[in-house]
Amino acid sequence: MTNELQLDRYDAAGIDAIYDQMVRLYAETHEDLVGNTFYTTERFEAFFVKQRAHDGFELVAARLHGRLVGVAFGFTEIPREQYALCEIMVTPDYQRKGIAKRLHDELLRHRPEHRADLYVRKDNAPAQAAYKKWGWTKIGDVQPTPEAPNFDELILPLPITER
Known about the structure:
4 helices
């Protein structure tokens, strides 16, 4: 199935072409968190506006038979040093089929920074396991904003190698 997957790369200017689909994908992938005010689509959209304004913003979208099934995006956090991986999301009916790994690798493959970092929910066992398998290492706990939950902060040396 991942052979049929179409991956497309977008910069901040080009993302408007799939923006509405991406917001729907966010809502679909976060249904288990309905009622948690930190994970509303409105909050996602507000954060996304800020994230896409950063230098080095890139998004990779995955389509299967024309349908948007996943995205991964991030931005340069520290020039030439650190890339912030903000989000990897895959629609629930296509999770655990290798799509997240393809998105991850495509997004990070040619990054000029020396490392990437991300925050992952402490209770997200599937994501925690995937990141560990892909070579990420926990470096600490972080609460990025006062209203945010505590996350694990992970780093990955770049460039990525096959894992």
